Amino acid sequence: MPKKHRAIEGVGPSSIMELKAQLYKSQEEAKLTKDFTGSDAQYHRAKERIAAKDSFAAKNSGVEGRAFKDKLELKAVKDGAVSYAALEKKAQLYEKLARGELSDEEAEEKYCVDFFRKGVQRGDDLEPPRTSNSSVSAPPEDLKADGEDDGSLFSTKFAGLGRAVETADISQHVRMVREVHQEVNQAREKATELKQRRQEQATNRREKLKQAYLRKQLEKLKAQQQQQQPQQQD
To answer: How far apart, in Å, are the Cα atoms of 116 and each of 97, 123, 171, 172, 201?
Structure first.
């Protein structure tokens, strides 16, 4: 048998229709808000925020910094400051080398030529062949050349049985020291010449500025005198 509809107090057919209408309205509003909160809405909002930019007007700070640094380096090279500093540094280094004050760290980092190693390598190249007789440590008297004395024995050192290694010759050391002094003198001359040239350029520049200032002052005086002459005639 069909069930009877129970009557609810305060709820009638009109109130049920109002509830259905309110439910339908809320569902439609939810659909609309869901559509506008999707990716399309974000795209439209982002598209509205994007402003037109001129790509040619944009500036790169890194490029500008490198260009400014290149200009400064080019100016320093033209003025001769870089060459002057390099020559001064080289002269100081050679002076330390000549006095024997060059430390190991400076020799490894700054100095390009190791004269001590060159002398040792040259001595190794002049090493005589090893002989079978281990007891022979010096040449006999009859094999000495004419005019050679016993002082030549001090230029050898013994490195084992039957093996003698030539040490760096004194004359070779003197020659290397002379070469170093010659290079130092050349570097000093170049540095002095460059310094004098820079001083002359600075003097000429100051003289030109002075002449230009005096010329402007003279022109001002002439202009004032020309203005005063018509006033005196009146």
So the answer is: 12, 11, 14, 11, 43
Residues 6+ apart with CB under 8 A from 161: 134
In a domain, 1, yes or no: no
- Domain region containing 102: 65-129+155-226
229: left (phi over 0), alpha (psi -120 to 50) or beta: alpha
pLDDT by residue (tens digit) across 30-82? 887 766 555 555 555 555 555 556 555 566 677 778 888 887 777 766 666 66
CB-based contacts of 120, cutoff 8 Å, min separation 6: 168
Confirm whether 52 is domain-assigned: no
Q: How many folded domains does the chain comprise? A: 1
Query: What would the two tokens of residue 52 be?
Result: 């037109």
Residue 146 lies in a domain: no
Alpha helices for the chain (secondary structure H): 13-36, 39-49, 61-79, 81-99, 104-109, 115-125, 170-233
List, in order, residues 6 or more apart from 1 with CB less than 8 Å away: none
